[in-house]
Amino acid sequence: MTTTAQGIINSKNTRIDATLTPSPLQLQIRQHAATITLVMPNHLEKGTTNKQTTEAAFSLMGIEGQLPRGLSEADILLPRKLVRPGNAALLLVEVPLAATFLDDRCNIVCGRPNCRSRKWLTSGHGLASKDTVQVGALPYQWVATSSALRPDLQFWLPGQPNATMDKSSATIAYTFGDFGLPATGVSVIERGPQFISMPNSLVVVSSTGEPAVLECIAFGTPEPNYRWVRGKTFDEEVLPSTDSRYSLINGRLIIENPVEAKDSDSYRCEARNKFGTVISSSVAISFGYLADFSNVQNAPVRAKAYDGVAIECSQITYRPAVQYQWLKDNAQFMRPEFQSYIFISNNGKLYFSEVTRSDEGRYQCIAELTGVNQFTIGTNQPPTRFSLPIPLAVSDQTPKSNWGPEIQNDFPAVFPQPPLRGQDVRLECFAYGSSTTPFYYSWQRVGLPIPDSAVLQDHNRVLIIRNAQLEDAGTYTCTVTRTSSAKDTRSVYLSLGARPYFVAPLKHQHADIRGHLTWKCEARGNPSPVYRWYKNGHPLTSDPNTRVQVSKNILVITNLDASMHEGMYQCEAVNTYGSEMSNAQLRVLSFPPSFSKNPLPDQMSGAVGGDIVIQCNPEGAPLPQITWLRNGGELTTGTDGRYIQYPNGDLLIKTLQSSDAGTFTCKAVNDGGEAESSTTIFVASGAAIATGPSAVSAIVNETAFLQCTASRDPTTDVNFVWYFNNYPLDISDPTFSVVSETQASSRTGLYIKGVQFKYEGQYTCVLQTPFTADSKSGYLTVRGPPSMPAGLYVRTESVTQTSVMLMWTVGADNGGAVVSFIVEAEDEFNPNEWQTVLTVATKDSIPADILQTDKHGVQVDNLNPGNGYRFRVSAQNEFGIGTPSIPSDFVKTLDAPPSVAPSNVRGGGGSVGDLTIRWDLLDRSEWGSSSVYYRVYWRKKTEGDNEGRWQSATKTGTDDHHVTLVGIENFFLLYEVKVQAINPLGQGPNSSIEEVYSAEDLPLGVPTNVVSNTYNTSTIEVSWTPVPDTREAARGKILGYQINYWPQDLDNRRKDEWQFIRYYGDDVSSGLVINLATQVNTWVGVQVVNSAGLGPLSEQYLMETAFYPSWHYPEEVRVSSVGAGQVRIWWRGILTTTWEAGLTAYVVREFLLDETND
């Protein structure tokens, strides 16, 4: 008895058939995997081990003694127990999607379309028809179809169980979507919408006045229409009619003058046409802010010379993230690339590996708003804030010899937190130690190499992993060395989170009416994602009335009906870091058989004594039944003899005879009708190409296969030679692999691995014998991203101060309609830095005054005046983004006044009577002309509406500060300042008005009530009444107080020999003087400090440090009871020396026995 298991798999019009003799093996087809169900023979009794069962099962498939490579016993799904002899036991072996065979013609099982004439063997080792394998006493034989896949191209991976599809299934996934449609060309095939560009979340900085822009791009035929919705349930449509600030241009949503109260929300894009609706992943518009630093002065950072130290940035609130820079003494930016002992971490701190007195100063932290994770900042000029100065005070100590390295406790550190897949992940390392000899930093990953995408920066102290992936996780070790023996090592474990991403996205499904569909999507993420399903934009759940069952990432639909089930389906994977959508179209088909796309060849040739296979591959739904005719009469076929019809419908004629010449007709019949296609067989002596190369399509980077099979007498020697566009093909190139009959495979032909556009063309197979030759040709079409646009130029008459009109000719679409163009720009002052300035839909890129359909153009706005630009354009289709065009020639925008104002306007410093104003110079690209200069404005701040008159001064284009004399009497007064950039064409905008103080004068106030007390034998405590924090007394901002001290025997006038210690803070009223000698008299005096210097010295106070405490302790302690609740204590007292303080008392302490004497 023979059992044939048939089914339609998710491939390109592909049916997989298998025949077994006798009947215990069933082949079941799954949506994303194939499952072999083996019914085990009777001799496998109870107690049989998993391994024995496994080996017996694979013996059936031609492998003796071991499992296929990569497949473990854990991958074999056994029943809970083996049944008793005489019954069957099931053994399931699964081939997951990731482990499908490298055959170029099938999508899932083989890898590309049309597997109908391929033998499908999970082991990769087929049995000849005459062979049998003995398992116990039962013979099993694999009959199947005509040819096996190349064993050396097959591989195995462990898989996970999937829901099965039984043989009544009829699911076909034709890659280019034209199954059952007229052969009118791929680019005009009608199809549902599919996103090729999803919107991104956006952080709006409202003060910039820039619009908020969200954009999605979808392709489909007819052209999709777009709709934007928002809200928690996405039930509110965003329409220009509801708010004039909104505008919609295709998939682009523009919100002018965004307002947090109105526009902060979750948004979703919808694209629809007559086939259904798809929805984008949800994105958010949020509003970033950067608060001001606190006006409370930070405590000073104190360090000893030659030690390491860190200065922490003042606290500031922000959203979503900030990046840091540091400024010293209001003038000098910290540059770690030039000062290797300094390091600025992403945690905001400024580190010194070793400080000296030269590092003393006032440091300001600068915070700039930036984006993080999926958010981008919707402005080119994010806000910045300057902290109040943070003093660094360095006290002297004896220099240390070479010490360190000692990796600081904050390191190694990982940024951002948490690190996510796709981000540039930054690992930092920094060590304290002597800077007299250089430190050398190196990185390793324990057990694995450093990722190829990683780069080192900042003296190798920073390791950046570009576009980090989950496999980049691991333990990273930082090693710092100074000499061959001095080093320190620390490690950090990098664990990456990941928003979901699809490893097995949905594929378009073209299914038979009344069929059964199992659809599966597979996404990865960390944490693992959960799944939701949608149909035409609406949530989809299990419903027995519609015969739909949803189970996590698997969707099952039974008894398919076009009116109920056709549409656009989406699988959404969601975790804590976001969501991702995969969408595909379901078509439920019912149409009569057709050979319009796959007719039988007009004629075929075979050799006497050879074999020939006639392939029959009609389209039809439901699956047509195949019968064969010879010269108009019915042909009797079987599973043996010379005429064998395979379960997939192909006809094998064995041992050809001259009488086999004639016309053979394949007849296909289903519920909708019938169709026929015929070929004429010619039989000759020698050898001939029975099946030659045909027209084949492949996608870039896939594997293509061109078949070339010989029909010959077994005694005839043959040789295959291949030509490409009539030139001999270089078979030594590893891109090409020729499979011949000597390789134990009837799938003979040419494999082309990693197909590129340059491989498109005509391939000719030449069959050579000692006496004759035969040849046949086929054309390989390569599909993929569009070719580069050509002839890009700038319309000279369109050039304005801020815009240009670009024109180009569209390149080849390479099998996928171009849906958008990406425009990039490079300016003359930042060479090789290409910035995307515009993405435009194809239909919006055709100017109204251009009649040629291949000409496209677009206006590029928001350029800087007076700059040289060049541009390049890339095209995008369903296969991806193509190669950028050759850049245009440089074109200079018209000169104009500067369009931006100087930033970071600030002040402070200088001598008494000075007003110092500083700013950041404009970038060269912002000048608007060939030169620029600055005008600085200032006026004294007044109360009320009585504003003073602005005074001004002009500075050159290289000046970044201005100092003006306002008079000694105007010390420490508040001024309003602003700065403007000007070029020969006019004035640019003024900066925002900032408030700065004029220079401070030396303080006049004197600390009073100076008192000193003994603290211990080497320390005294000094206290005082602070100076009033007024302009008249402090004559500036009080930074702190300086305690001066000197021995009593030192002349008071020798101030250069005084020692001092400073305490920072405007309200400090006491401090300690340490490291004094014991029993010495010391003079102390206090001065107030501001940025101009020291105030007058206070009254002087003489203080003596304390004697040493007692050096001995009482001995011979005795305790005796003298009654209830009373004891008498006796001890031997002590004597003191002249160096010890006088004895004043003894202290007696008591505690319970079970307590600790503290």
TrEMBL record:
Alphabetical list of SUPFAM superfamilies matching this protein: Fibronectin type III, Immunoglobulin
A Gene Ontology cellular-component term: plasma membrane
Gene3D superfamilies on file: Immunoglobulins
Transmembrane portions of the chain: none
Domain Fibronectin type-III: 785-896, 901-1001, 1006-1108
Ig-like domain segment(s): 193-286, 309-376, 412-495, 500-587, 593-682, 693-781
InterPro entries documented for this protein: FN3_dom (IPR003961), FN3_sf (IPR036116), Ig-like_dom (IPR007110), Ig-like_dom_sf (IPR036179), Ig-like_fold (IPR013783), Ig_I-set (IPR013098), Ig_sub (IPR003599), Ig_sub2 (IPR003598)
Organism of provenance: Pomacea canaliculata (Golden apple snail)
Protein name: Contactin
GO biological process, one term: cell-cell adhesion
Alphabetic keyword roster: Disulfide bond, Immunoglobulin domain, Repeat
